Amino acid sequence: MPADTFVAPLTKPAHLGEDWLEPEQRTYSSAEHHIWDDLFAQQMELLPGRACNAYIDGLKRLDLGRGGVPDMGAMSEELRSMTGWEVVPVPMLIPDHVFFYHLANRRFPAGNFIRTRENFDYIQEPDVFHDVLGHVPMLTDPVFADYMAAYGRAGWKALHHNRLKALSALYWYTVEFGLIREEGELRSYGAGIMAGPAELVFATGARSPNRIHLDVDRVMRTDYVISDLQPTYFVIDSFQELYDMTVARNFDDLYAALAPGFTYANQAVLDSDTVYHVGTQEYALRGGGGSGAAPV
Ligand code: PHE
Ligand code: CO
Questions:
Q1: What is the spatial distance between Cα 145 and Cα 152, in angstroms, rounded to a whole number?
Q2: Residue 273 burial (10 A CB sphere; 0-12, 13-18, 19+)
Q3: Which pLDDT tens digit goes with each residue over 156-190?
Q4: Which residues have C-beta under 5 Å from ligand 2, the single-atom ion?
């Protein structure tokens, strides 16, 4: 991972057009394909019982374990026939408005690079394994696929109201780190959980994090950490519920009522929350990832 990935200003590389898309997916060395295969094999052990049914179905239908980093062209063709989505290669994190533009047009921008062995279990910025294994299977679910496209359209309104951070928190707590109640269990549908072996076990089973039913007004006021396992996960009952709480609701009044910054710390449990599990927060209190605390 290049050390300057996060702090580099978003300067568009000269060879890219206004859409920031790479003309084609890069080629990977055999060592890089092996990293994909090893990550994939590791996740296959952990996903059953922890990943939601829609994700497992999508994974099977797309057959992402053929060996090596999947070909985005072939994957897009299959995905297009299911929900109209495609996967397009980008070199790095792209500007927000460009990201929204692609989502609104049912294109999922996927990072071109793959993590190194030193960063096998946890990375802070999205690589091709996170973007493809984490996000793409969920895009085979018709309701979730519609939610993602609507989210892209919603970005414009959030920018207009100057409340992008609030909408980003919603993405974070749903698309990246969402849990769903299914067959009496709390399972993951979030890409940040699926593609990280540490987070998959932690999010679904550990005693440290809170698990709280998703409330859009609450979540859009809640801070989030981007560089460690989450102190709180938010839970839905179905993708239709997620859709109805967000897409089917007009956000104008919500944005108008929001303070410019976050109101709630990411570890907070509120009286108004519907709580499934009050976390012990042992992991965070012992110092989190930086301290080598056990993710219990
Ligand atoms: N319904 C929201 C609005 O009117 C937009 C939205 C769609 C937000 C999907 C999040 C996800 O602004
Ligand atoms: Co992601």
A1: 11
A2: middle
A3: 999 999 999 999 999 999 999 999 999 999 999 99
A4: 126, 191
Q: How far is the CA of 145 from the centre of ligand 1 (A)?
A: 14
Tokens of 226: 């981007």
pTM value > 0.85? yes
Closest CA to 182 of 42, 22, 48: 48
Closest C-alpha residue for ligand 1 atom 5: 154
Q: What is the pLDDT of residues 193-249, one digit of tens each?
A: 999 888 999 999 999 999 999 999 999 999 998 889 999 999 999 999 999 999 999
Ligand 1 centroid–CA 252 distance in Å is 9
Six-digit token pair at 109? 């921008």
Per DSSP, the residues of 4-43 read TTTTS--PPPTT--TT---SSPPP--HHHHHHHHHHHHHH
